[in-house]
Structure formats: C-alpha cells, structure tokens
Amino acid sequence: xxxxxxxxxxxxxxxxxxxxxxxxxxxxxxxxxxxxxxxxxxxxxxxxxxxxxxxxxxxxxxxxxxxxxxxxxxxxxxxxxxxxxxxxxxxxxxxxxxxxxxxxxxxxxxxxxxxxxxxxxxxxxxxxxxxxxxxxxxxxxxxxxxxxxxxxxxxxxxxxxxxxxxxxxxxxxxxxxxxxxxxxxxxxxxxxxxxxxxxxxxxxxxxxxxxxxxxxxxxxxxxxxxxxxxxxxxxxxxxxxxxxxxxxxxxxxxxxxxxxxxxxxxxxxxxxxxxxxxxxxxxxxxxxxxxxxxxxxxxxxxxxxxxxxxxxxxxxxxxxxxxxxxxxx
Length: 329
Ligand code: PBG
What we know:
- By secondary structure, this protein is an alpha/beta fold.
- Helix content is 38%, strand content 16%.
- It is built from 11 helices and 10 strands.
- An 8-stranded parallel beta barrel has the order 1-4-5-6-7-8-9-10, surrounded by 9 helices.
- The chain is globular and about 70 Å long.
- One of its GO terms (cellular component) is cytosol.
C-alpha cells in the first residue's frame, strides 16, 4: 500500500463527478417505503401535530398519495389506520372486519394504483381500547398464543383485501409461522411476509401513537413483548426464528439508533433487511430543522444513505416523498 504523498485519499473527492464515480453506496427512490395514516371520511386531511408535515388522509387521499409515490418511483406504501373510537374494543375485533378502514384502503389502492406495493401492519394496537398490540389477561399482561391466533385472522383479512406484504409488528412469538401457514392454506402463496423481527420497546414511537390514536389509550409500556434496547444477540435470535418460520424479509426498528443491529443482521444472514426510520426519528429531524440546527435536505439524504451503507435493502420513512423528490433532481 502506498503512502502519503503518493497516496492522497482527497484526490478522488476533489470533484463532484469523481465523488459520484467512487460512491460505494447508492440511494434511489426504489429504496423507499412510504408509511401513510388513514382517516375515516372523504376529502379529509388531518395534520398530526407531533409529526409536522405528515397528515392522516381519507381513502381518496391515500390513493392520491400512492399515485405521487408511483410517479416518483417509490415502490411501496405502508398503511396504518386511525380506527374510530367506537370501533375499538378490548379484543380489537375490528381488525377482523373485512370492511374496516384498512381493508377499504387496500382495495382502493389495488384498484386505482395496482403497480404500487401495499404493505400492511399486523398488530392490534390501532383496534384495541387499551392501545396494546394484543389481548390482555386480567393482570394486563399481553397474551402470546391467544393474540397470535387473532393476528392470523387479521393477516388473512388484509391478504383477502389485496395486501402484497404482511408486516407483523406485534412481537408475539411464533406468529410468522402461523401466518405463513394460513396464507398458504388460503392460496395467498405470493403474499410476502416482512417481519418486524427486531423491534425494540422504544421511546421513539410517540408521534406514531398520536397518528393512530393509541397514545392516550395506552396503559403502561410494551416492554413485555418488544425488545430491550440493551440486547443485540437477542435480535439475531429473533431474526433467525422469523426466517425459519418463513419471513421473506426482516425489519429492524427503530432505525438510526440501531444501525449496529442492521449491520449484524445483514452480515449474519445475508437476507433482505429493512429499517423503519420511526416517527420519533422523523420528528427529531424536523425539530432540528425548525430550530435552525440542521438543513433538512442534507440530513434526510444522509440518514437514508446510512441505512443503505449499513446493509439495508430499503427504509420505511416519513420523508419518503421528500427524499424521492430530492433524488429526482
Ligand atoms: C404498531 C406499530 C408501532 C409502530 C409501527 N407499528 C408502534 C408501537 O409499537 O407502539 C411505530 C412506528 C413509528 O413510530 O413510526 N405495533
């Protein structure tokens, strides 16, 4: 290996064309998955105060957003419903209703914009009156096996409506295998599963819970089912299990604080890994921008590039549309 001055690493950085030519990682709109929040009604846009720049849209608006996504080369949208209060219950039964807000949005999207992938979240928190992802026992503990059974029904309901990717975000043990078996049995052989394999009990989900209306309802935290931020080896075990059970791809969530997990998952398993740059991360960037502490375009592209560099196939991000516009320039 040569030495300075024969070797000057700054040489290849000296011009834009050369930097472009030497880039080890590329970020394109095809790397982006855009999470969208659904509201009841028609012609409705409800801004979310804790997620500045993000709104809930009624189904017609969701269709319009998906067309924007398509036109900018974003391959896939992720859907999250804000279920009306009177349709939430202890058992989250609305998740099984073939005409629930989620299913209506899926059908409208597959009808109007079939070329955009539709990823749907499987977990009961948008449907329960207590804001937890599953069924509770008398002590408030989230029951695993009983919940998993309902999640299978929820996944089949979404698949029947036309969902392309089922994304279980609930962290119940064994649910990926149960969902895969049920999808196969019902003939949904090409419906993918992207499991939220390593999902941490995080302080970064607050604005999301505002968006789906579960924040005020939630008693306690989700630490008995979501992972402890102290653990990395456990994340590898979670990923191994979900892959054995039939996950097509796995997700790490939140994103930026867990880049080490992304890198380790990718090196260990060589499977498609996705990151969720979650609501609190988005809000942090927007707060920094509002405070004059950061420049939006730069930090949006830099953080998304970080996920790619760490090994991600793609990223769920509320900045998807903005990033795609920047990348189109
Ligand atoms: C529901 C779910 C959550 C998120 C995605 N799916 C919240 C939670 O687990 O409490 C968070 C996404 C975000 O913060 O952007 N299980």
